[in-house]
Recover the amino acids of this structure.
């Protein structure tokens, strides 16, 4: 019924202007149903609402739907850090270390049986000292030819001034990096011959470990699964954003209204406290609270409330000053209604519309303020990142092309905020007593 | 800048312009700005790297902090080990044209402890000097009460200023340029706090005129913005390239990277003293006797850290695993100490043996704005410890909150770094390892309150030994005992990266300074 | 009016007293600046000397008392870190911040109000919806993120703009500023846009919301019924009535922009006050923090005063006696 009317402007206008229609509606609908119906008039807003509900559900159910608990340090592995989206995390590949003692003063071939742990059960080395400046080394492993499967291989202990015929020396560390395929036969050379014995320390790792899990959105620098981290981060960001805004709004609006309504001393005191509060940088407040209270989600909320309430107070007072001088307040005063009733039942609803804009904006702002505090180093604990902290951590990787560490949480934050705002915009129109279509 | 200095600068520029046809201007971006232009006001790397270009020291420090002749051509203890003699370089002039003599040295040493409101005075390096004796214009003798083997190292930190600036030359006088008269390769032209410092070539420099005409030093604290400024061509050289960007920049043909090991070790200080430590509890939170007092537990903690993984995965390969206080090659370093192997099974066995088979809960505290990737390193260590059954948490905070609390012994395990300003092993040993004794000025940064009589005795003996080889052996021995007892758990040595334009070269320095004199064009 | 202003300024003195007490206690709670400033190899004796020389060994109330005594002589203290009068440090950096904030504010008003009007008058049009959705990007991503993106795109990839720093300055009308030179404006563009992004979104949304509200009111309907041109209705009747909330917020935002352009100044290496205060907070340079906040409190009080006076101009129903206090 209402849809058909609503779709036709002429008819809708008729309905609005027809007293009968209004009365009919008032009788038939509770205010809640009316708000819901008006809200549903915008398809975009409904879409936003569905999205928001989905996000909230995902955040609440994070522990059940995420493949990993990103806050459990024993579940994440630094070795799996910075994996690109879709990569498979693998367990540490088998690692083997052995030393090859070399005595340049003993010419001829030496056979050495070396440490035979995984992946290469038997390793034998043949050391051939033929030339005073060149020592040949031949390695065989069981299973034979397995060195081709070596993932990383380092040889340390090459004497000063000597070189290997394979691989490359690290730019500032003492070891050589050698491709596994070249390990079977290589030589150590040193112009002018060798001085005394030395040991080549070989450190090799197999190419593949066992697959643990696939990270569809990649991992961050600490090896957290991005998908899980985003779900968990959403929980924190949403609660920080919404709670801090809610508290700040309640405190700020009450004080702002009271100031505007009563005026005089009360107003002076409240508004000067507002001036004081506004002049304190968020970062200083956060740092003080951090020093006094310590780190944690609750502390961040306290810091954000402390920083934001004055903002609401100041804004609402502006609107309330205008409303206060209007007739309906005068009328209410004449009726000898209590101050509380006048302030909260008459003044407040009329100051709400601009406040809803500020609230939806500030919720978003609170979330990014939290991210900024983290960026400046005084936000949440590093081991339990929020969306904002994920963005600011990943941000360092933007230039290195590891886009996923910062972009995915950024997109998640963007979608969340868009949803909040779509809902907020429509709510404001619907709740506004002066813009009610049937009002 | 006083008018006459401007004029002098202009004349110098005009005179040498034809001769230096290839010379160019250079812009450097550093991470933190100098707090003042007074060379004796604040002993910190950010200030010292500026001062080192405007002023000389009697003994300058080379790229590896080796001692090089500066304003002194030679030096050494006399037959009396409490008197050191320095022969000064002749024919050196200050930026205002006046000659450098022994008077200036005496004036400088007298000024150092008397800079008002200095937040960190250089007096710690001159405190042992009881008398400065001017033998002639170019010979100075320093007297001390007891033999002082570190005389040369100490004086390699003191910037020599002109005695002409008068008794009460103030920090403000240096900031506005009037007193900023040194003998260094560059002269101070402009100082705009927060924005830039401009230096100009001193064509008369005793070691040859510098390559760059004008050097502009700009502070850009955000690492990403610093890299962006280099990529955009706004600056020619940047300090402290973040490790995360290195792989990408290596592939960029417009940029060169230069890496060098630093004198800074990153380590964990462990509360090995108190019976009950504030952030060590049984799993579940009940109070327990501090397990960190047991050397087996400390060893287990050290073995449980995969230093190669920290270097490869947190530092992106740009660091060196550490097993002691200074990297190989520095004075007083032990040759026998190996980097502890990663051995989680061994660590668990040691914990079991010490009676902590079920683990305990511990919090690692660390700064998040002080060392390269500091917060990430703390988290990585926490991961590794939780693998051997410890319930590990991490709390990081800005250094303004962190260091005060660390010095008040509020933490049990803390991530800290130590850069050896003197470039030798007595610096970390005396501050971090030796028993804390405020009256004698020892163990000032020993925040774990480790105490070992044998180490104390060896360090004390070293501090009385003027002979270099004997002293180096004593320091190495002390280090070996301290590392065996796990006084601290070193994790890695920092490696610093500088970025330059493709046609420039930077000679890396262990002291982490970024100097225009270390930048040369590639032919 | 004069009485009103004088009374307001007197109250401000009290606010500043409270503020300075809070800062003293707060910074004291955070820690001791010497712990950060001193060279790590300093001995205990040197540490104590440094603490004494900055007067930090005295009990807190005595430090505060000394501060008040100095204040009576018109001094706001000497920076622990730079050893220069704190107020001078701040004044040195003020022009850079003021020009940045002014340009950013100008940008956000000239872009924000017309777009907001459009979106409010034609809420269901494609343009109206696009403006609203577009504005969401302005505030949903953190400021530092936007700043570095601007640098990445315009300075690094396109190589059009400088990546940071302040350009050449010149003196015009007795004011030294970088907005008088081409190079200066060139350097100013990116940081100003960065700083203006959030504010523009805010102004757009606020303007739209107020327009949507006012447009349904009787006086607008009457104005239209009277046959006034749409132009006159919008620019006189609508615009004037939406100015109260918009002015409040813009006033506040100007203050916030001047006071805490911290992130923008850090990212763009802009030598302004925001950078100074953040650095000072991180090294606990209390004299600078106190002096800075004093300047900021005064500024906020002046801004609020101006905003309150503007109320009475925009809406004659509001009398200064009401704003009073």
């Amino acid at each position: 019924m209402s849809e058909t009317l609503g779709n036709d402007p002429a008819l809708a206008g008729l309905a609005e202007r027809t007293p009968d229609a209004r009365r009919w509606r008032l009788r038939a609908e509770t205010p809640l149903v009316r708000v819901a119906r008006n809200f549903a008039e915008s398809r975009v807003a409904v879409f936003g609402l569905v999205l928001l509900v989905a996000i909230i559900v995902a955040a609440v159910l994070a522990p059940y739907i995420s493949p990993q608990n990103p806050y459990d340090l024993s579940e994440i592995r630094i070795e799996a850090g910075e994996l690109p989206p879709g990569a498979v995390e693998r367990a540490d590949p088998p690692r083997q270390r052995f030393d090859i003692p070399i005595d340049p003063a003993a010419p001829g071939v030496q056979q050495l049986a070396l440490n035979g742990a995984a992946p290469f059960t038997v390793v034998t080395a043949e050391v051939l000292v033929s030339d005073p400046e060149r020592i040949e080394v031949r390695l065989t492993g069981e299973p034979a030819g397995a060195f081709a499967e070596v993932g990383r291989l380092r040889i340390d202990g090459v004497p000063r001034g000597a070189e290997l015929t394979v691989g490359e020396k690290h730019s500032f560390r003492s070891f050589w990096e050698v491709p596994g395929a070249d390990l079977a036969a290589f030589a150590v050379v040193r112009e002018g011959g060798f001085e005394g014995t030395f040991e080549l320390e070989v450190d090799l790792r197999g190419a593949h470990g066992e697959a643990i899990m696939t990270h569809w959105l990649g991992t961050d620098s600490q090896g957290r699964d991005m998908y899980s981290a985003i779900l968990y981060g959403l929980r924190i960001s949403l609660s920080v954003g919404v709670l801090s805004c809610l508290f700040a709004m309640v405190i700020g609006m009450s004080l702002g209204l009271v100031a505007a309504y009563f005026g005089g001393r009360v107003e002076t005191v409240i508004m000067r406290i507002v001036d004081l509060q506004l002049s304190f940088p968020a970062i200083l407040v956060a740092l003080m609270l951090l020093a006094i209270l310590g780190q944690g989600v609750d502390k961040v909320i306290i810091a954000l409330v402390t920083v934001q309430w004055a903002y609401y107070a100041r804004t609402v007072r502006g609107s309330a000053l205008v409303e206060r001088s209007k007739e309906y307040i005068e009328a209410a005063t004449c009726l000898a209604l209590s101050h509380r009733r006048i302030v909260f039942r008459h003044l407040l609803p009329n100051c709400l519309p601009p406040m809803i804009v500020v609230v939806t904006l500030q919720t978003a702002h609170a979330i990014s303020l939290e991210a900024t505090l983290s960026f400046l180093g005084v936000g949440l604990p590093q081991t339990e990142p929020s969306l904002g902290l994920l963005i600011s951590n990943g941000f360092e990787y933007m230039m290195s092309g590891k886009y996923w560490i910062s972009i995915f949480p950024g997109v998640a934050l963007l979608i969340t905020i868009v949803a909040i705002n779509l809902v907020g915009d429509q709510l404001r129109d619907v709740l506004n007593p002066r813009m009610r279509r049937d009002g | 800048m006083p008018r006459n200095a401007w004029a002098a600068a202009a004349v110098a520029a005009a005179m040498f312009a034809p001769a230096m046809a290839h010379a160019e201007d250079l812009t450097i971006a550093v991470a933190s700005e100098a707090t003042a232009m007074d060379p004796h006001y604040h002993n910190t790397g950010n200030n010292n790297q500026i001062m080192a270009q405007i002023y000389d020291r009697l003994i300058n420090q080379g790229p590896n902090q080796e001692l090089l002749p500066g304003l002194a051509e030679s030096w050494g203890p006399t037959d009396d080990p409490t008197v050191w003699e320095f022969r000064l370089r002749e024919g050196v002039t200050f930026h205002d044209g006046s000659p450098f003599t022994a008077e200036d040295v005496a004036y400088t040493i007298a000024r150092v402890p008397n800079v008002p409101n200095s937040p960190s005075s250089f007096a710690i390096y001159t405190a042992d000097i009881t008398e400065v004796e001017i033998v002639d214009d170019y010979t100075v003798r320093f007297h001390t009460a007891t033999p002082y083997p570190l005389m040369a190292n100490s004086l390699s930190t003191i910037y020599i200023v002109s005695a002409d600036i008068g008794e009460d030359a103030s920090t403000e006088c240096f900031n506005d340029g009037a007193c900023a008269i040194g003998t260094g390769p560059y002269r101070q032209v402009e100082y705009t706090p927060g924005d830039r410092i401009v230096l100009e070539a001193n064509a008369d420099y005793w070691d040859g005129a510098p390559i760059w005409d004008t050097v502009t030093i700009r502070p850009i604290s955000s690492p990403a913005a610093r890299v962006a400024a280099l990529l955009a061509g706004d600056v020619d050289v940047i300090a402290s390239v973040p490790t995360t960007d290195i792989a990408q920049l290596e592939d960029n043909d417009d940029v060169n990277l230069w890496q060098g090991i630093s004198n800074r070790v990153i380590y964990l200080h462990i509360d090995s003293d108190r019976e009950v430590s504030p952030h060590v509890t049984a799993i579940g939170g009940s109070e327990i006797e501090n397990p960190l007092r047991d050397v087996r537990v400390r060893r287990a903690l050290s073995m449980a850290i995969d230093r190669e993984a920290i270097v490869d995965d947190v530092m992106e390969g740009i660091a060196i695993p550490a097993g002691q206080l200074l990297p190989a090659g520095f004075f007083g370093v032990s040759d026998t100490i190996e980097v502890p192997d990663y051995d989680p099974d061994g660590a668990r066995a040691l914990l079991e043996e010490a009676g902590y088979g079920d683990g305990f809960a511990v919090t690692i505290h660390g700064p998040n704005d002080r060392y390269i990737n500091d917060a990430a390193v703390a988290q990585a260590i926490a991961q590794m410890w939780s693998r051997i059954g410890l319930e590990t948490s991490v709390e990081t905070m800005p250094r303004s909150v962190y260091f005060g609390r660390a010095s008040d012994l509020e933490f049990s395990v803390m991530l800290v770094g130590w850069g050896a300003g003197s470039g030798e092993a007595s610096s970390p040993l005396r501050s971090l390892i030796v028993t804390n004794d405020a009256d004698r000025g020892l163990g000032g940064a020993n925040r774990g309150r480790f105490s070992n009589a044998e180490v104390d005795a060896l360090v004390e003996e070293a501090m009385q030994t003027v002979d270099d080889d004997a002293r180096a052996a004593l320091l190495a021995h002390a280090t070996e005992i301290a590392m065996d007892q796990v006084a601290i758990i070193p994790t890695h040595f920092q490696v610093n990266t500088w970025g330059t334009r493709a046609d420039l070269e930077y000679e890396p320095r262990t002291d982490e300074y970024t100097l225009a004199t270390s930048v040369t064009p590639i032919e | 009016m004069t009485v009103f202003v004088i009374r307001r300024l007197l109250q401000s003195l009290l606010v500043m007293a409270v503020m300075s007490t809070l800062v003293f206690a707060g910074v004291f709670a955070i820690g001791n600046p010497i712990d950060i400033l001193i060279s790590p190899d300093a001995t205990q004796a040197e540490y104590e000397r440094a603490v004494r020389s900055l007067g930090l060994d005295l009990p807190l109330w005595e430090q505060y008392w000394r501060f008040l005594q100095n204040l009576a002589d018109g001094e706001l203290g000497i920076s622990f870190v730079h050893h220069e009068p704190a107020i001078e440090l701040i004044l040195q950096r003020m022009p850079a911040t003021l020009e940045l904030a002014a340009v950013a504010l100008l940008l956000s008003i000239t872009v924000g109000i017309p777009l907001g009007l459009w979106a409010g008058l034609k809420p269901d049009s494609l343009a109206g919806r696009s403006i609203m959705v577009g504005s969401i990007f302005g505030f949903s991503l953190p400021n530092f993120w936007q700043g570095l993106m601007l640098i990445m795109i315009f300075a690094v990839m396109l190589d059009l703009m400088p990546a940071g720093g302040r350009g050449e300055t010149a003196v015009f009308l007795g004011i030294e500023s970088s907005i008088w030179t081409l190079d200066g404006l060139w350097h100013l563009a990116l940081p100003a846009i960065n700083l203006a992004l959030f504010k523009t979104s805010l102004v757009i949304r606020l303007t739209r919301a107020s327009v949507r509200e006012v447009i349904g009111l009787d006086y607008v309907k009457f104005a239209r019924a009277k046959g006034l041109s749409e132009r006159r209705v919008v620019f006189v009747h609508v615009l004037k009535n939406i100015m109260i909330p918009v002015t409040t917020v813009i006033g506040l935002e100007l203050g916030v922009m001047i006071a805490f352009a911290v992130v923008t100044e850090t990212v763009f290496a802009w030598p302004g006050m925001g950078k100074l205060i953040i650095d000072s907070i991180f090294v606990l340079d209390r004299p600078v923090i106190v002096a800075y906040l004093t300047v900021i409190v005064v500024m906020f009080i002046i801004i609020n005063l101006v905003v309150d006076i503007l109320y009475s101009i925009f809406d004659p129903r509001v009398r200064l006696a009401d704003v009073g206090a």
